[in-house]
């Protein structure tokens, strides 16, 4: 493992060995290897996915040389899938690469079971009807699916999977799990053993802020009938009490306590997001339930019993001004509580597994430990069927986006990206592809847009003339700069889904290259 550790050093720091192992076991299928598909796979091959299969029935043409770095002059007239696969293989010889020279649309129709062998399918530049068919196929086979498309100066990325549960969501900002306003007995005893009025100035300035806040919060609660500061004036008063405890202006620990005082004001218990997860119908588990939902069921029992309304403690504490002895002792108290909570959850997991007729040891200790550490940050993402989104749209959302100045262009591009497929189905070409037909194509595309909006239940809504004209000027071109950006977003989503780390996008990501904006539409 030494060589891969060196090779993937930077990314291992982001998603760890567990995430990298998931990538190295993944089998990725790419449909259409134009610029968007090639750029997506390039990022994944460099990242060390296990294997790739490139599917494309077209030949390399001269026009491909200007927008796809995975082909060169020697490739003209040859299988595009073969050439792209060869170039991608050169980027990382640890990745198994193969190609199939067949048009994806034909494969979707003729051999739907073909896709069940893959971990994830990246479908690029597909028309609407093929998207609908492939979505059903992948959901039935429990295969992850990502759609991506570049079109002139716009493009989209859309994830599609029944359900995606994330344990390691890794939010950018999240409140430390310190329980300052709800200390357990050991933490309370530790805080009580330390005198904040100690005469020694060195000891006074090296008392950890956690201890200061636990003691001050308890004092406040005693004086206010068990209530913690809640109003603006009360919070200000609490901070003034902390300032009053300082005996010198250079006491960094008290400054840290004042800065972290908001952690005392945070409500006890679990977040509304976690509450929603533990009360999800899937938390009523049976023998077919996933490991994630079995652990959620155990978490639900823990919160209602041993946890006293709280999730298991994470066990980590931030850096703070403190003597080494006090910091180490404080760290041990948090780690001991986290370990105790883990053991309770582990036992509950085993009991639930036994109850539903599964092996009590089928969920590993490492997984349960990771679940406990991240219990407050769990996320469950669910995605609408593409067919539902297309045929039964959320009309209020569509109308809201069309009339919202901030989102109207993104929604306009969403409509136009679907309208050009209708245009293509009617005229066997995309708007603006042929010189001399621009004015006629603008009129035809406008008709397609009106028809689509009517079908969406948005009669009377419009897309601006400028945007329709711009879409025709794109001429269905797949610009490399846009394709590279869309491919980067798509590959990032692939990594999120495969590693089950970070939260994947829910909705349709639209890139607006005219205004240099990216927005997510929840439709």
TrEMBL record:
Which UniProt keyword terms apply here? Nucleotide-binding, Nucleus, Ubl conjugation pathway
Main subcellular location of this protein, as a coarse class: nucleus
Q: Which Gene3D superfamilies match?
A: NAD(P)-binding Rossmann-like Domain
Pathway assignment reads: Protein modification; protein neddylation
**UniProt-listed InterPro entries:** APP-BP1, ThiF/MoeB/HesA, ThiF_NAD_FAD-bd, Ubiquitin-activating_enz
Q: Which SUPFAM superfamilies match?
A: Activating enzymes of the ubiquitin-like proteins
From the Swiss-Prot or TrEMBL record, state where the protein is found: Nucleus
Q: Pfam families per the record?
A: ThiF
Give the protein's biological function.
Regulatory subunit of the dimeric E1 enzyme. E1 activates RUB1/NEDD8 by first adenylating its C-terminal glycine residue with ATP, thereafter linking this residue to the side chain of the catalytic cysteine, yielding a RUB1-ECR1 thioester and free AMP. E1 finally transfers RUB1 to the catalytic cysteine of RCE1.
> What is this protein's name?
NEDD8-activating enzyme E1 regulatory subunit
* Species annotation: Populus davidiana
């Amino acid at each position: 493992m030494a060589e891969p550790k060196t090779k993937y050093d930077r990314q291992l720091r982001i998603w760890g060995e567990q995430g990298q192992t998931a990538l190295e076991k993944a089998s990725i299928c790419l449909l259409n290897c134009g610029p968007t598909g090639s750029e997506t796979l390039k990022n994944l091959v460099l990242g060390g996915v296990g294997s790739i299969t490139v599917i494309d029935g077209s030949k390399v043409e001269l026009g491909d040389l200007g927008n796809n770095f995975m082909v060169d002059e020697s490739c003209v007239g040859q299988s595009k899938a073969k050439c792209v696969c060869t170039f991608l293989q050169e980027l990382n010889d640890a990745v198994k690469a193969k190609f199939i020279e067949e048009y994806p649309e034909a494969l979707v129709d003729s051999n739907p079971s073909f896709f069940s062998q893959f971990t994830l399918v990246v479908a690029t530049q597909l028309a609407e009807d093929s998207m609908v068919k492939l979505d059903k196929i992948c959901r039935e086979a429990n295969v992850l699916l990502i759609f991506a498309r570049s079109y002139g100066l716009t493009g989209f990325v859309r994830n599609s999977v029944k359900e995606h549960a994330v344990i390691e969501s890794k939010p950018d900002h999240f409140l430390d799990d310190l329980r300052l306003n709800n200390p357990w007995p050991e933490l309370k005893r530790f805080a009580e053993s330390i005198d904040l009025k100690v005469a020694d100035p060195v000891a006074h300035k090296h008392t950890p802020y956690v201890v200061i806040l636990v003691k001050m919060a308890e004092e406040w609660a005693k004086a206010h009938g068990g209530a913690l500061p809640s109003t603006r004036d009360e919070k200000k008063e609490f901070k003034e009490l902390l300032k009053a405890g300082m005996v010198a202006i250079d006491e960094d620990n008290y400054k840290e306590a004042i800065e972290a005082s908001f952690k005392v004001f945070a409500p006890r218990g679990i977040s509304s997001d976690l509450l929603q997860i533990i009360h999800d119908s899937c938390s009523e588990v049976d023998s077919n339930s996933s490991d994630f939902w079995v652990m959620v069921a155990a978490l639900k029992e823990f919160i209602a019993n041993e946890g006293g309304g709280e999730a298991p403690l994470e066990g980590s504490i931030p850096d703070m001004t403190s003597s080494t002895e006090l910091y180490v002792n404080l760290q041990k108290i948090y780690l001991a509580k986290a370990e105790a909570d883990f053991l309770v959850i582990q036992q509950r997991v085993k009991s639930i597994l036994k109850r539903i007729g599964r092996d009590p040891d089928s969920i590993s200790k490492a997984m349960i430990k990771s679940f406990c550490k991240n219990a407050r940050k769990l996320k469950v993402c669910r995605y609408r069927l593409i067919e539902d989104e297309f045929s039964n749209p959320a009309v209020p959302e569509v109308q809201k986006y069309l009339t919202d100045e901030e989102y109207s262009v993104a929604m306009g591009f969403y409509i136009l990206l679907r309208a050009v497929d209708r245009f293509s189905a009617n005229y066997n070409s995309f708007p603006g592809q042929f010189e001399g037909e621009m004015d006629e194509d603008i009129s035809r595309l406008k008709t397609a847009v009106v028809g689509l909006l009517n079908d969406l239940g948005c009669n009377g809504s419009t897309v601006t003339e400028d945007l329709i004209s711009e879409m025709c000027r794109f001429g269905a071109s797949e610009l490399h700069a846009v394709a590279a950006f869309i491919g980067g977003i798509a590959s990032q989503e692939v990594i999120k889904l495969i590693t089950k780390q970070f939260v994947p996008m829910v909705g349709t990501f639209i890139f607006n290259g005219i205004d240099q904006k990216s927005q997510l539409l929840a439709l």
